[in-house]
Amino acid sequence: MCGSRKPTDRLRSKAAARLGCAIQAKSASRFVCAIAVLLLAVFPLLGSTPEKRQAARAQFDKAESARATLTAKPISERKLAEYQAILKMYRNVQLLSPTVHQAPDSIYQAATLNQEMAQRFPGDAAKYRAEARNLYQSLLRQYPQTRYRKQSNQAIAIMESEDEELAAAPSPQAPSRRSSPPDLPSRVTPVSSGSTTSSSDDNRDRANSKFVTISNIREWSTPNYTRVVIDVEDEVKFEAGRIANPDRIYFDLHNTKLIAALKDHNKDVEDGLLKKVRTGTNRAGTTRVVLEVGPVTTYSAFLLPNPYRLVIDIQGSPRTNSASAPAPSRRSPPPDSPAPTT
Question: Beta 225-232 vs 238-243: how paired, if at all?
Fold first, then answer.
């Protein structure tokens, strides 16, 4: 009959009705999602008034100014309270207005300041390093498009590498209780990574192979020793020795070259054991890294692979945060003597 509907027609009608409901539900779901995204974007602004944003910018400028004043002081004169006051100002930036342009900058600067505190106050180095890592991770999580993304990832990777080095390397022996290093002759027989090579051997090595690049020099402190790590792209031969007046330990890395950023590297550390790290070229193809030291009793060096890096530990009397590092010398040290030969 004309008024009756076939079973197939009824099925098609039901399918169409279900499809229409599904489309409506999907559209509604998209609408709800869009509203949720909009609310998430607008919500932080609800509590961030123009006054708060202006106050956040002022806190950041104040923190930057205070940090510049602190950095101008000798390292040994920088006080814990000064670091803590600057950190508080950086924290206030995000608390006042997490959407202000300076908010991610304040997190990054607070992280780098904690790394500096780990150097300055080695007794609490683990705490400050952990806080720095947490801040870098927080920055990447809250502001994934930050301009400091690359630097933050690199800093986290370096700290993880340093933790691996501490775990893999033999722990230093307990330092001597002497408050000052023993008298040193003007020249000390060096230790090396292998048999000492002659000048002609060095020339032949340079002619037959490319220079190994030295890409980074980093250091950090513990209560009983300071560690310096020299990152190299391949295995290297090295010699080390100690020279007095002023007291310094040098490392000659054969068949190497420095990246441009490390040429004439001259960094003050002043952690009580290590005063300064500087670089130079002792002779063609040989890079010299010099550690100007304080009351160091012993030192050791070893090469670690994957990636290759030369790890140097200098040891002395146990340090505490209350002990002030010696004031840095105001005169330029005399040039180093050429490496001893055997």
Answer: unpaired
Mean pLDDT of 23-46: 54
For residue 231, give both structure tokens. 């990152």
Contact 91, 107 (CB under 8 A): no
What are the tens digits of pLDDT across the range 196-234? 444 445 555 544 458 999 999 998 887 778 999 999 999
Cβ(132)–Cβ(91) under 8 Å?
no
Identify the residue whose tokens are 């030969």: 341
pLDDT above 70: percentage of residues in the chain: 65
Which DSSP string do the residues of 163-187 spell out, in sequence order?
Answer: HHHHHHSPPPPPPPS-SSPPP--SS
Q: What's at 311, amino acid-wise?
A: V
Range of the domain at 258: 191-316
Burial, 51: exposed, middle or buried (Cβ in 10 Å; 0-12, 13-18, 19+)?
A: exposed
Say which amino acid occupies 338. Answer: P
Which residues fall within 8 angstroms of residue 168, CB to CB, at 6 or more apart?
A: 304
Instruction: Give yes or no: residues 145 and 221 share one domain.
Output: no
Whole-number pLDDT of residue 330: 36
Q: What count of other Cβ atoms lies within 10 Å of the Cβ of residue 271?
A: 22
Tell me what pLDDT residue 26 has: 57
- For residue 76, the domain's CATH number is 1.25.40.10
Phi then psi for residue 325, to 5 deg, are: -70, 150
> Is 70 within 8 Å of 83 (Cβ atoms)?
yes
Total number of domains in the chain: 2
- pLDDT at 180 exceeding the cut of 80: no
The whole-angstrom separation of Cα 107 and Cα 90 is: 7
Rounded to 5°, the CA angle 213-219-220 comes to 155
Please report, for the domain that includes residue 293, its CATH number. 2.60.40.3500
Identify whether the C-beta of residue 131 lies closer than 8 Å to the C-beta of residue 114: yes
Q: Using CA atoms, how far apart are residues 5 and 201, in angstroms rounded to an integer?
A: 101
